[in-house]
Specification:
The chain is an alpha+beta fold. It is 61% helix and 7% strand. Strands 1-2-3-4 form a four-stranded antiparallel β-sheet, covered by helices on one side.
Length: 295
């Protein structure tokens, strides 16, 4: 194997000289003091993950790896490996990416003492008991690795991650998945029209929005509702005053969900939606004046 490109200390692009195929090699320190053209040996202890460089997975992985520290991928990898072994199941490969992203925001919220919203824990436990038990173990691992205390509802969020990415679940719920995919496509179209953007789905912040929407649509299907607190209402008013254009977009999406699924977004859910939209605008390099925020 020869190195084609070093992305950082932990990620390099490599080429198999026999097959001429390029892959991404991920491992602790694999790129440290390495240069393009050098030979590299994949060791069992060092090579954590290898994936085809041309894939959508690889593009998403590389984009996210520029945004969050590698430790979050390491912890996500441990969680996925343990879950697959304990539940004797295989997951869709995107679980690693969405889980790392979720853990990053979860730990950030915990360090800021921020509320992640409410979930009907008992309902999730009853409906997905196996995944819920595994999620409890995963929550403990995250708390240990990052020295944080997570809210009890984090178990529910992690359980939903498992449910949504189980390979047999995807096969068994093709119709449900198609409905979600159509709704997500419709919502992205609404956002594109309202914000006058060409939203590219391979961008990391768009992937984050799509992951958020998948969770939202799962809660809608399961009739799970967020309950606003007084702090949510206050924060929502502050946000819409700061981002009136984003409020208009969020209200259009709210109207779509209400018409399509008879589900009205809480103000807490609108906050999350607006913040995701804000990140997409920033990533698209739209002028700051549109956002009405300080540089």
């Amino acid at each position: 194997m020869n190195i084609v490109k070093v992305f950082n200390n932990n990620i390099v692009l490599i080429k198999n000289q026999q097959t001429q195929k390029e892959s991404i090699l991920w491992g602790k320190g694999v790129g440290f003091q390495k240069k393009a053209g050098q030979k590299i040996t994949i060791k069992e202890n060092d090579a954590v993950f290898v994936k085809e460089a041309e894939s959508e997975w690889a593009r998403s992985f590389l984009s996210l790896s520029e945004e969050i520290p590698m430790k979050y991928f390491d912890v996500a990898k441990k969680i996925v490996k343990e879950a697959e072994e304990d539940m004797d199941i295989s997951f869709n490969s995107f679980l690693l990416i969405s889980l790392a992203d979720h853990i990053f925001f979860t730990v950030k919220r915990a360090s800021q003492k921020s509320d992640g919203g409410e979930l009907p824990i008992n309902e999730i436990k009853d409906a997905y008991n196996r995944e819920f038990i595994q999620a409890e173990k995963s929550k403990e691992l995250i708390e240990h690795e990052f020295d944080v205390v997570l809210q009890a509802n984090e178990t529910g969020f992690l359980a939903i991650h498992f449910v949504e990415n189980e390979k047999e679940s995807i096969k068994n719920f093709d119709k449900s998945k198609m409905s979600k995919d159509k709704a997500i496509s419709d919502i992205l179209k609404i956002a594109s029209d309202k914000l006058h953007l060409n939203i590219k789905e391979d961008k990391v912040n768009v992937q984050r929005l799509k992951t958020h929407l998948k969770f939202l649509l799962t809660r809608i299907q399961n009739k799970e509702f967020f309950v606003d607190t007084g702090e949510d209402v206050k924060l929502y008013q502050q946000i819409i005053n700061s981002y009136p254009q984003l409020q208009d977009c969020a209200l259009s999406i709210t109207g779509y969900l209400e018409q399509k699924f008879n589900y009205k977004l809480s103000e807490s859910e609108r906050i999350y939606l607006i913040m995701h939209l804000r990140q997409i605008i920033k990533q698209a390099n739209v002028k700051e004046g549109i956002l009405n925020e300080d540089k």
